[in-house]
Amino acid sequence: MQGPVAIILAAGHGKRMKSERAKVLHEVCGRPMIRYVVEAVRGAGARTIIVVVGYGADQVREALADEPDILFATQERQLGTGDAVRACRPLLEGYQGATLVLVGDEPLIRPEPLADLLTRRETEAAACLLGTAIVPDPTGFGRILRDGAGRFLRIVEERDCSPEERAIREVNPSCYAFELPGLWDALERLDTGNAQGEYYLTDAPQLLEAMGRRVIALPCLEPDDILGVNTRQHLAQAHAILQTRIQDRLMEAGVSIVDPRNTYVDGRASIGRDSVIYPFSVITGTVRVGVGCKVGPYAHLRDGTVLEDGVEVGAFVEVNRSTLGAGSKARHLAYLGDATVGQSVNVGAGVITANFDGKLKHATTIGDQSFLGSGSILVAPVRIGSNATIGAGAVVTKNHDVADGQTVVGVPARPIAENR
Q1: Do 207 and 251 reside in the same domain of the chain?
Q2: Which residues are catalytic?
Q3: For the domain that residue 292 is a member of, what is the CATH number?
Q4: 118, 262: one domain
Q5: Which of 67, 142, 198, 353 has the most crowded Cβ, counting Cβ within 10 A?
Q6: Is residue 235 part of a domain?
Q7: Structure pTM?
Q8: 184 and 302, same domain (yes or no)
Q9: Contacts within 8 Å (CB) and 24+ apart, 86-93
Q10: Sign of CA dihedral 45, 49, 53, 56
């Protein structure tokens, strides 16, 4: 077992989401929220990641099936967070070292404070180091109690708080760095004497301290880091914060986003420097936009789209699973699906690649420097050669390829000499 280890708790139902889907699989900016937590712990240095599953276990396993360094532990019954961590013990038998424990429904957690927790736990020789946050509104969180000298005393869950404790603004977002095997000693002493009748992981730090082990609460997290998603409203809040982070990162890298509030960029997309994204554009999925491109307004780039350098995709143009070569332009009201478009192609207003025959999707290939006239329809599968011209309103039917340099017009499209 390679350390550090990270345990991500993802067994809960999330009843307030009103969904049959496992809570941690609800998407934020195009990706299941647990993906962000996995990336954060990996970025913090975790070498082994254990995800604790329960409700919707098969869904979670399937969603993370492409992650080679993830192991799964199953919490058979919903008996609390302490019981969820105990489910990992067989996988960690014999392991000694640092272990992060987080929840899978806090998608805004960043790797930097987690790495700080791991470093400080080692330098302080602590059995437990809690990452805490000081927030304007502590509602929903357990509170951090300290003594007169500021030393950690215990965590009190909100349901168990007195009125005075509810006023405390330093909260526990369930972000810990424990030392193993010491954590197992504390988990063995947990009981269910609380409002929920569950085994609270939050009791473990106090138990460790009672055993003479060192416990430190470190306020290293920002309020945005700890937004837990328990409702659809929380999901929308997480989306807004993460969208700001995504767009800020792009702008810092040299991308112009004219109106960030009215633009959506998926967390998986990449955009090259000196590209401009105009208002009301939507970029979803694994999209790659090159250098010096123009997108929008009102453009939609869907999963699998690649725009090479200098491409322009304008108003009400949708591109899906397609590649546009360098310098090509589709400025108005077009749909390009399952298309490979060469370099310096002009796609006129209203052009459609008709890629779906009712059963299957088919590909369209368009050669370099071709001209597609306004309102033309290309019925896939079909190939348009280089330097070809498709007349306005022409319908190129499937398997009737257009040769290099050829001009076709009409319905169905025919070479111009034939039409005469």
Answers
A1: no
A2: 332
A3: 2.160.10.10
A4: no
A5: 353
A6: no
A7: 0.89
A8: no
A9: 86/184, 86/187, 86/199, 87/52, 88/7, 88/50, 88/52, 89/184, 91/1, 91/50, 92/1, 92/5, 92/50, 92/180
A10: positive
Do 279 and 181 lie in a common domain?
no
Q: Are residues 215 and 310 in the same domain?
A: no
From first to last of its 420 residues, the chain has per-residue pLDDT tens of 788 999 999 998 888 999 999 999 999 999 999 999 999 999 999 999 999 999 999 999 999 999 888 999 999 888 899 999 999 999 999 999 999 999 999 999 999 999 999 999 999 999 999 999 999 999 989 999 999 999 999 999 888 889 999 999 999 999 999 999 999 999 999 988 877 788 989 999 999 999 999 999 999 999 999 999 999 999 999 999 999 999 999 999 999 999 999 999 999 999 999 999 999 999 999 999 999 999 999 999 999 999 999 999 999 999 999 999 999 999 999 999 999 999 999 999 999 999 999 999 999 999 999 999 999 999 999 999 999 999 999 999 999 999 999 999 999 999 987 655
In a shared domain, residues 280 and 336: yes
Where in the sequence is the domain holding 166, given as residue range(s)? 5-226
